[in-house]
Amino acid sequence: MTPEEWVEFVQSYAGPEEFEAWACKTLNIPKEMLYIAPYEPPPREANGKFLCKYFGCLGEYTSKQGRENHFNSAHLGFRAHCLDCNAVLMNEGSLPRHKRESCTKRKTG
Known about the structure:
Layout: H1 3-12, H2 19-27, E1 50-51, E2 60-61, H3 64-75, E3 80-81, E4 88-89, H4 95-101
Antiparallel strand pairs: 1-2, 3-4
C-alpha cells in the first residue's frame, strides 16, 4: 500500500455514526482538529534521491518504490507473510525470492 493509498483509506473511513460530534463534545476538541490534511507525495530531490518525509526520519532512497516499501514497513508496520513457512518479510516484493531461495517448505528435487 502506497502512502497515497493509506491516506485515501483513512479519509474514506466513516467510523461510528456521529463520532465527530461525540468526540468534539466529550473531549472538547475543536472540529478543525479532526481534519486530515491532504497528502502529497514528496518529489524527487535535486540529487535524484527520494526522501522519507515522516517526521524525524532521515530515510533516503534511490527509487519511489524503495521509499514506499520503507514507509509501509517502518512507519505503518506492514509485513508480508509466507503462507508456506510463516516467515515474516518486509514487503510483498520479497516473497518470490524467499520462496525460491530460503523458504523452509519449498519443494526441492
